[in-house]
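# step 3/5: fold
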Amino acid sequence: MDLTQGTDKEKNERAKKMMLWFGIASLLMGFAGWTSAYIVSSSREDWLTDLQLPYYFYISTAVILVSSVSYILAKNAIRHNRKKECTTWLFVTLALGAAFIFLQFRGFNEMLSYGYYFTGPTSSIKMSYVFLIAAVHIAHVLAGIISLTVVLFNQVNGKYTSESYLGISLGATFWHFLDLLWVYLVLFMTLVK
């Protein structure tokens, strides 16, 4: 297929999809670097091997997985021109995204209550990585929430139809990526002692 062919709309859609995938690829490289450094650092003598991730990290994992389902339902609704239903599911996704961030901060507070800090005399290299990886992921979820808010605004203003819903598709792809990334990260930090 010749990528230079097609209508201006088709070319614009392909360009936006490609930009999203380039962004996702760059995020993957960043997180691959941090998880690689985590593995390399795990051979240090001062590495904590008995650390349990906060309970709230696991609860937030369930919440973010449910948010992916609600985004799928929103996209499915707009594909069938059920605009009101789409809007409802987008609001549900937004609420679940906010709940995810809230639960992540509860997880941070749980770690702090056990005396684990990002830096300082009671910190460890492992805790620094856990805080860093989770915080950087939260920053990207915030970007996803901003994207979702734009999608929701456009949906409420009637921009999307069953024939034209690129914004919802791009937003959903980014959201699902963030969800799968968190599942990978929480499994990684749980299993790599």
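# step 4/5: annotate
The mean pLDDT is 91.
# step 5/5: archive (pending)
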